[in-house]
Amino acid sequence: MAGRPREFDRAQALQKARDAFWTRGYEGTSMADLVSMLGLASARIYAAFGSKEDLFREAVVLYETSEGSFATSALAEEPTAKRFVERLLRDAIEIYTRPDLPKGCMVVSAATNCATENDGVLHWLAERRLARNVLIVERLKKGVRDGDLKPDTDPEALGDYYTTLLFGLSVQARDGVPKKRLHDLITVAMPALDGFVLQP
């Protein structure tokens, strides 16, 4: 009589898959890699998570609701637009450079280029990056409405600028730029907003 397959912790397996995709990207992580990292046969992975793409999408959502949730926290907790932007960028650096995690942002780095058959993954991640841009722009618009930014502030231009900086921090962190240098960059970048600030 064959023994029953050993039980596995689905949440733990998903976390391991997240870290694999975060480190090597969608196409750089093969099913053989996932089998090795999760310690599960491919049939069990498919049974638990569906396709590789389904597993990847679930792993991205896990990232966004755990380590990648710093933007949501800053949005909920900071009372002014300037404090939101600075906390967003500095918290990003702390996450992107943590020694116990893959470097950079999973949503930025996991699929910047893909084969044609993986266009769905490419576009899905692009939509999530664009959503981050919308979040920043909308918070700056709220700053104008609330009176902590001047009425002549251009929320779109500033939002695009800080979104580009945020994504650039991910690339720099993956390339090994030290945390202090990244924080120094934020100190240089914040004056672009200072000229529009009424309430810091």
Automatic annotation (TrEMBL):
**Annotated ranges, domain HTH tetR-type:** 7-67
Question: Please, which domain of life does this record's source organism belong to?
Answer: Bacteria
Supply the alphabetized keyword list. Answer: DNA-binding, Transcription, Transcription regulation
Among its keywords, does the record have DNA-binding? Answer: yes
Note whether DNA-binding occurs among the keywords: yes
Residue numbers of the DNA-binding region are: 30-49
Pfam families in UniProt: TetR_C_13 (PF16925), TetR_N (PF00440)
Signal peptide start-end? none
Instruction: Give the InterPro entries listed for this entry.
Output: DNA-bd_HTH_TetR-type_CS, Homeodomain-like_sf, HTH_TetR, Tet_transcr_reg_TetR-rel_C_sf, TetR_C
Q: What name has this protein been given in UniProt?
A: TetR/AcrR family transcriptional regulator
Instruction: Recite the lineage of the species.
Output: Bacteria, Pseudomonadati, Pseudomonadota, Alphaproteobacteria, Hyphomicrobiales
